[in-house]
Amino acid sequence: MTDTEYYDLIRPYDDAMKLLLTRLEILNHNIYKASAENPIHTMQYRIKSKQSIEEKLIRKGEEPTLENAKDLLQDIAGIRIVCYFVGDIKNLIDMLKKQSDLIFIRERDYITNPKPNGYRSHHIILGVNVFCLDASEYYPVEIQLRTISMDFWAAMEHRISYKKEYDNREQRVAELLSYADTLVDMEKEFEKYNENATLS
Ligand code: 0O2
């Protein structure tokens, strides 16, 4: 994929991501009508780099071409939402699924069913309609929703273990899993302070 092809590829994904970020800002301010609190702690977003797109296609056994990127990758645009409570994640997902102009494509609920290594997050892929001069097309945006403690664990695990080769892997993986369990217990304690457990 040439640099020009890459920039042509990502432009509509970038537009789709910006449209969704604005929608999320609005939901964040309006979701808890009866409360002064908002569900979102922080949001991050990124467009996958050219190198990352090519590496992912090669890992999937595919040619790293423009067409394959468009056909096979649904995380070219990505938003990570860090919430205070697990309940906030559920409420936000319910609201997102009710947005009639967004298409629900797929979700992976690693909070209900954590990965064997302890990874937790709720991933949802939504299609966002991007209008050009004489046409419109839906582009996928991957949203990863996590609590602060899930984000802490995932960031550390990404840094020290995810897709990495190192000695004593078994031991580190077991330690990371036990930290994940500790964080789940702590998170449950904090949940009792959640005043917006059900949507108000
Ligand atoms: P990176 O380095 O974050 O960009 P897919 O091909 O996307 O349909 P995939 O990749 O299995 O299938 O999708 P999944 O399970 O929804 O995971 C996508 C992303 O979630 C990953 O992106 C990571 O960002 C994150 N993730 C998934 N599993 C783990 C994990 O065990 N630990 C950590 N720290 N993050 C995880 P990438 O592209 O794999 O990697």
Automatic annotation (TrEMBL):
<dbReference type="InterPro" id="IPR043519">
    <property type="entry name" value="NT_sf"/>
</dbReference>
<dbReference type="Pfam" id="PF04607">
    <property type="entry name" value="RelA_SpoT"/>
</dbReference>
<dbReference type="InterPro" id="IPR052366">
    <property type="entry name" value="GTP_Pyrophosphokinase"/>
</dbReference>
<feature type="domain" description="RelA/SpoT">
    <location>
        <begin position="45"/>
        <end position="168"/>
    </location>
</feature>
<dbReference type="InterPro" id="IPR007685">
    <property type="entry name" value="RelA_SpoT"/>
</dbReference>
<protein>
    <submittedName>
        <fullName>(P)ppGpp synthetase</fullName>
    </submittedName>
</protein>
<comment type="pathway">
    <text>Purine metabolism; ppGpp biosynthesis; ppGpp from GTP: step 1/2.</text>
</comment>
